[in-house]
Amino acid sequence: MPQDTINVNLTHQALDIKHVNYYQPLLVYKCSKIKVETSTPKVKTLNLNINSFTKQIDALEKEGSNDQDAFDKEKAYLKKAIQAFFSAGEQGLRSVKLLIYKDSNESKEIKSQLQENRYTFVVLINTYSSTNDGGDGLTVYKDDYTHFKEDKHFFVFATKESEIKELFKNGSNSKAKIIVIHSKKEEHLHLRFISKYLHEASIFHSTNPYGLKFSGMNPITDSGDIDKLRKANINFYSLLNETGLDGVMAFKEGVTLEGAAIDELFTYHYIKYELTFELVRVWNVNNRQNSKLSALQLDGKKDNAYTTAIECKLKSFIDKGMIVSYSDLNVKIEPSQA
How many CB atoms lie within 10 A of CB 147? Predict the structure, then answer.
């Protein structure tokens, strides 16, 4: 069920809400040797699909005249990452946008992409390293995150660590909607996960990510490592029955860094935006007769076009199997201080 209160911010061009990309993530890669645009914003954007991504990555150019070997290795690494994203074939997403940047200051373009395209999920690919150990995305993006962090979106990080060592360790950044996934070497579990999960969610929104299965993955079996990951709310790939008796491998635990179920938060997010869009739609139909949306009467004490529209929308959520009931739901619009 949705939370009792849904707080809605209508400051930023609320009418573009119909373009929310619920099931299409934005992939982000901080490069080392890859050439990006020379004019602002200094980024490289690729619209990849399962059939042409190899050629598109092969066509990337090198920054400067040195380190050809490092550039070739980075390009091969990025190709493996995208290959992991598309590895589920028909059971995963078949297209995605990739944003490549180099300088930390240019990471501000990520926020522009979020405002223009309303991506729900942002997936951060670790920068290539010669150690080939998987890296820690929380370290890679620790200086850039402040440029694009936004509580309206889910951010997905990969880490080789079994504990949180950077970015969200001291409480300076909110853990809400932050998803951290343990990924060893070049398995890119976070890319495999987001592709398969969002594909299944696009078919049936209330898909539970716990238990998703992936091919070509080595499960974590050490009970000590599993205990550390679980306590840190880092997702991982292990045996469904951790005694190992069934031999079935599965994604666990399906939670954010603060321990909330991913599918529940995603459902709240979906309901919030769909209800907001419905309110704006009715508001426009009524020629915006009330200049302040925050002044709408939504307490349910008296039926009107807005409460009726919300009730019909919530009924459709029940029909889709997204929620069970809404009798205790309170919808509140809060004016922004901006």
Answer: 15
